[in-house]
Each structure stands twice: as structure tokens, then as C-alpha cells.
Amino acid sequence: MIEKFRARCSMVDPVTNQPRFGPNMLAKVQDLLRRYDEVKLAMEEEAPLRLQEAQRAAELAREQEQERHLQGAREREAEQQREELQRIEALAAAAQEKREQREKERAEEELLRQLEEEEREKLNASIPHGKEGLERAIAMLKDSTGSEALYRQSLQKLLAVVSNICSSPENTAFRHIPKENAHFHADLGQYAGGHQCLLALGFKELQQGDEAQLRAVFVLEEPDLSEDLDAWSNWFDELKEMQSFVEYKLN
């Protein structure tokens, strides 16, 4: 359109041979063309600057986009680190709780062990060793069995214990009686005085086995015959005397 105006400025009417535009119109068109040329020239001169600005803007946009990606990656990494730290802290807290629970259980087990040991010591000291203690224990046994038949059955079990030892004092099986042994418990151990009868014979209640499977056992220690014959003889004679005493109680 502009070029058409520019061309018509130099055209003449073929009939009148006069310029197509009158003086006023020609001045206006020429002024318009001048301003157009000025604007076009200015735009052409500014084009490289605008291109540079556009390039800088595009580069800045790319840098900003890269920074957003990097920031997002840093935030994700930081979140992962926080989650990992929380997981580690949770594991550490759980481990600490387990340690504290184990320590508490060990303390409770130790307290229970001490109480049981105190009870064993009290039981071991509850009856004199020898014939006097045996007589007291048998009296307790008679009261607790509640019938002559059960009383005699208990005495027969006691007699079997001491007779086995007297017949084979070297046999440790006869001198080790588990407290929870079913036959011993049924015939003698379940009654008041039953355990005291063993203590009067010289047995001691001890804990045997490993920590996972401790069990209470009544143990009668035999003096070392090779080191002290007199001590062994006194020990054996006392057992024979108490064997006779139990036999007397059964008759």
C-alpha cells in the first residue's frame, strides 16, 4: 500500500497531464511517506538490538528454567534426605526402646532371681540338719497330708530317697532331685514338710542349668572320701541313722 502511494506521487493524469495528487494531497502523502520511512529506518536500526534483547530474554528464560529444575531437584533431594533421616531416627528410637525393654526385663529377671535366691536361702535355713530337723519335718508332713494313707505314702517316698543314697552313696542321680520332678512332687514335694525332710537329710535347694533353662534341684553333696575319711564316715553314719528313724516312723 505504501509503495502504491509512493508510485502515485510521480504519476500524471494521461488526459490532463497533471499530477494525480493535488498540491495539498501530495504534501500529505509525501509527509506520510517520510514518516513511514523514518519509522522503517528506525525499526531496521533497532532490529539487531531487539534481536539481542530477544536472545538475552530467551537465554534468561532458559537459565531460569534450568534454575527451577535445579531447585526442584535440590528440594526433592532435601526431602529424600529428611525422609531418610526420619527413617534412621525412627529405627534408632525403636532400637533404643528395645534396648531399654531388654534392660528392664533383665533387671526384672535379676530381681526375681534375687528374690528366688532369698527364698531358697530361707528354705535351706528353715529346718535344722539332722535327726532333730527330720523329726520336725515329718511332723509337718503328717499334719499337711491329712490322712494316714497319704502320710505313710510320703514316708515311704522319703525312705526310698534315703535308702537309695545309703545303698549307693557314689551315685549322684540319687543325690540330685529336681524340685518339679512329677513323682517326687506327687508323693512328697507337694506337702508342707516334704522339702524340709530333704533339707534335714542335708540336701540344699540349688539352681542348675544355663540361664535359659534354670531349674531348682535339691542336691546332697557327698564329702570327698579320698580327702577326709572321717567327714565321709560321719556323713554316711548320719544318713544311716536317719534312714532308721524313717523306718521307725513307718512301723
Automatic annotation (TrEMBL):
<dbReference type="InterPro" id="IPR036339">
    <property type="entry name" value="PUB-like_dom_sf"/>
</dbReference>
<dbReference type="InterPro" id="IPR018997">
    <property type="entry name" value="PUB_domain"/>
</dbReference>
<feature type="domain" description="PUB">
    <location>
        <begin position="153"/>
        <end position="225"/>
    </location>
</feature>
<feature type="region of interest" description="Disordered">
    <location>
        <begin position="56"/>
        <end position="84"/>
    </location>
</feature>
<dbReference type="GO" id="GO:0005737">
    <property type="term" value="C:cytoplasm"/>
</dbReference>
<dbReference type="Pfam" id="PF09409">
    <property type="entry name" value="PUB"/>
</dbReference>
<protein>
    <recommendedName>
        <fullName>PUB domain-containing protein</fullName>
    </recommendedName>
</protein>
<feature type="compositionally biased region" description="Basic and acidic residues">
    <location>
        <begin position="59"/>
        <end position="84"/>
    </location>
</feature>
